[in-house]
Amino acid sequence: MAERGDLGWLLGASLRAYMEGAERAVAPIPFGYKGYMVLSAVRRFCPGTQLELGRRLAIDKTVMTHVIDALEEAGLVTRRPGPADRRARRVALTAAGEEALQAAVERLAAEERRLLGGVPVAVRDQLVEGLTYLAEKGGSGPECGEVSDCSVS
Amino acid sequence: MAERGDLGWLLGASLRAYMEGAERAVAPIPFGYKGYMVLSAVRRFCPGTQLELGRRLAIDKTVMTHVIDALEEAGLVTRRPGPADRRARRVALTAAGEEALQAAVERLAAEERRLLGGVPVAVRDQLVEGLTYLAEKGGSGPECGEVSDCSVS
DNA sequence: TATTGTTATACTCTATAACTATA
DNA sequence: TATAGTTATAGAGTATAACAATA
Predict the structure, then answer these.
(1) How far apart are CA B29 and CA A151, in angstroms?
(2) Which end of chain A is more exposed for a tag (fewer CB within 10 A), N or C?
(3) Are B86 and B49 in contact (CB under 8 A)?
């Protein structure tokens, strides 16, 4: 934010610009973009306990409780005790959750296209490449393994 | 943040990664990176009223009051009524402020070099180009004119 | 009356601590 | 004893509203 051109300012301003549209795009989902992130991670990492979801998304477990409370109340996810460990609750998308997520993904993609419209594809690719590098340099969940199987009931 | 690879997640995670080092780099300055931004903008836009500083940095005027209070108390800036309009207070760097800013700029540059160390220069350039485009698409102060003269007393 | 800046207050977001229920 | 999750509470950070001084 300081001198425009500083990496910090650029990242902050870019994030603000992105979020402005993103929050609008995912609007119906409780907790906005954060709620969308959780829905998205639930689909991707399937059963996923809340703690695991939190680790992957860098969201505190207490925050996760509130978000999932809201998503459950809105009928977008279910929360059931795990079969092996009844403490670890399995979060899963409902049909309505799948729909809401799919709709959000589409509106978000449209928003990204709008936002990146004027950026040449080559620049865009290297933008993503650079950001991916930076993101991985941070401590956000380097210990997350890959997804195993995935068959929602 | 949702699916790693999403632009939103990438921007958020990159900003976190950057800020981790940046806050450490500017540590002695009150209000951390925000304080650094203000110092930096004061040097760049010289006299600058508080309101103008806030507009340029997307910082609320009430927040600006607190930040400048702290910077003034730390002896890094002075705050005097403007000659033409005594409501609009002119903020200026002290010698100590110049020093603190210069030191922070250097540590920050080192931190950026460390963070971007593994990124090829071509990618880095296009990363900055892409971010600059995104940042300007946002509403953060498009109505800010350029700097006029600048001679601190 | 409008504007700069301050103060006090309220709100949002997040983290900490204490608790429960399982293991 | 340790862990998953919940609840209540406290803490940043930010914004809103009312105010003082000046224009």
Answers:
(1) 52
(2) C
(3) no
E-state strands within A82-148: 89-93
Rounded to an integer, the average pLDDT of A58-80 is 95
Q: In Å, what is the separation between the CA of A85 and the C1' of D12?
A: 36
Q: In the numeric block, which tokens belong to residue B32?
A: 């951390």
Q: Distance (Å, rounded) from C-alpha A34 to C-alpha A38?
A: 6
Distance CA B147, CA B139 (A): 20
pLDDT, tens digit (0-9, with 9 covering 90-100), for B51-65? 999 998 989 999 999
What's the confidence (pLDDT) of residue A124? 92
d(CA A67, CA A97): 14
**Chain A contacts of B135, Cβ < 8 Å?**
4, 9-10, 13-14, 17
B10 with A128: Cβ contact below 8 A: yes
pLDDT, average across residues A23-37: 94
Instruction: State the pLDDT at residue B11.
Output: 93
Contact indicator for B52, B145 with CB cutoff of 8 Å: no
| pLDDT tens string A85-132 | 999 999 999 999 999 999 999 999 999 999 998 899 999 999 999 999
Residues 6+ apart with CB under 8 A from B111: B21, B22, B24, B25
